[in-house]
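Please decode residue identities from the backbone states below.
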């Protein structure tokens, strides 16, 4: 029987190591996995695995592509994200618009969060993470192949 353990970054690292994924840690200590351009996705994808919150007990996964959404595509892209969110349980998709002095940048972010303050066993964590990652890649296949984004 699996043992429930306290959630911390070692649980994430164990998942990544067990899946054979090459990763690095960013300045915040989050784990980052980069996937190169794939024709079926129409983009590169970066996965970010985080322990967030004041107690670092909220597990978050973000899937971000290198695809920049031009302003004239924002409304259509938001509609596609809404369609995905209405029809699919996870991960949540949204258009992230970032305005700086230098540029306005819009990207699609897929994310999901799981509060783990009571702990988790590795098998459940691994399964949940696999489902989120798979769902994120399914989004990019769907939005690229069926909607030309």
């Amino acid at each position: 029987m699996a043992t429930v353990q306290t959630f911390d970054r070692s649980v994430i690292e164990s998942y990544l190591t067990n899946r054979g994924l090459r990763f690095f840690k960013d300045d915040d200590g989050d784990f980052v996995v980069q996937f190169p351009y794939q024709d079926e996705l129409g983009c590169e994808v970066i996965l970010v695995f985080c322990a967030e919150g004041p107690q670092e007990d909220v597990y978050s996964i973000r899937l971000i592509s290198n695809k920049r959404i031009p302003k004239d595509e924002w409304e259509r892209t938001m509609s596609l994200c809404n369609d995905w969110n209405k029809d699919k349980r996870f991960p949540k998709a949204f258009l992230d618009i970032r305005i700086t002095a230098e540029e306005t940048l819009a990207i699609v972010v897929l994310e999901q969060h799981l509060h783990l303050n009571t702990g988790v066993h590795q098998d459940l964590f691994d399964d949940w993470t696999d489902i989120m990652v798979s769902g994120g890649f399914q989004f990019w296949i769907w939005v690229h192949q069926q909607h030309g984004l």
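Observation: The mean pLDDT is 94.
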